[in-house]
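This section describes the prediction task in plain terms. A model, or a person checking by hand, is given the sequence of a single protein chain and must write out its three-dimensional structure as a string of tokens. No templates, partner chains or ligands are provided. The sample shown here is typical of the held-out split.
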Amino acid sequence: MTKHTFDWKRYGRWVGTFIGFPLAGVTARLVAGNIDSATAAAMGGLAGGAVLGAVQVGIAGIPAGERARWIGGTAAGLAVGLTAGASAVGFDTDAASLVAMGALSGAGVGIAQALSMAPGSATLRDRILWALATPALWAGGWAITSQVIVDADRQHAVFGSSGALAVSLVAGVLVALRDRRSATSSSSTSVAAVATSSDRMAA
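The expected answer:
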């Protein structure tokens, strides 16, 4: 049986998707300006989420069958999550508010992306783990950015590059481990199929 090790190439590609966060933030600002209302949050989240999803698809090598769902899901998830998060904190920009907003934004994105994963590439366990981890990661992303950002009062849609890199470093581990489990499962299935075929021939 083939032994599947940690896929460093896959991990590196996912880490590279961190650039999608600042690009999503720029897009959200061009479309909606400051995130100072539910309408701005919904519009900015939708546009920014589409860009983030597209970058993740392009750099991380998400399977062809998932790409449209991933982009659409990320867009819808960030639109809903950012609207809920920003509204929940009254569009405030202190550190605690940004972390709370990040958690709710991440929840929307995490759930939507988990639902976008094809059954063949992710188990139910993988989907649940992604949906639970993403809110924590996005809260952490904002916690990091809130310590270095100098223009939080501009009410950004997503955290900056420092938080994005940290989030992508950790999320990449989840992606690489998920792929390893998927590869191991596929190998086990193939071995079982060959064994069954051999038994039938022997009979």
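For orientation: Residues 8-184 form one domain.
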